[in-house]
Amino acid sequence: MQVVDKTSAILEHKRETTRSATGNHMEMCKFTGLRDPRYEAVKVILRAYFKSERVQKTEEVSSM
């Protein structure tokens, strides 16, 4: 079941990673704990995103 259309579900950021999530709006952001597989999937994606943002910021500062 698709809760929202794709254009509402994505940011269109050049380094964005998209994945489908099971559940409704309430269930998608609730996890049973730190070992919940859905939590782990989100954590990995967020870590990679923020790491890439730090690298980009460092490169921008270095090129000034």
List the defining traits of the structure above:
single chain, 64 residues, mainly alpha
Largest sheet: none
Gyration radius, to the nearest Å?
Answer: 15 Å
Cα end-to-end separation: 48 Å
Q: Could you say which structural class the secondary elements and strand pairing correspond to?
A: mainly alpha
Strand content: under 5%
- The stretches of 5 or more residues where confidence is low (pLDDT under 50) are none
Mean pLDDT: 80
Number of strands: 0
Number of distinct helices: 3
Domain unit count: 1
The string of secondary-structure elements, in order, is HHH
What is the overall silhouette? flat
Give the helix proportion (percent range): 40-55%
Description of the molecule:
The protein has one domain (6-62). It is an all-alpha fold. The mean pLDDT is 80. It is built from three helices and no strands.
Tell me the layout of helices and strands.
Elements: H1 6-9, H2 25-28, H3 37-62
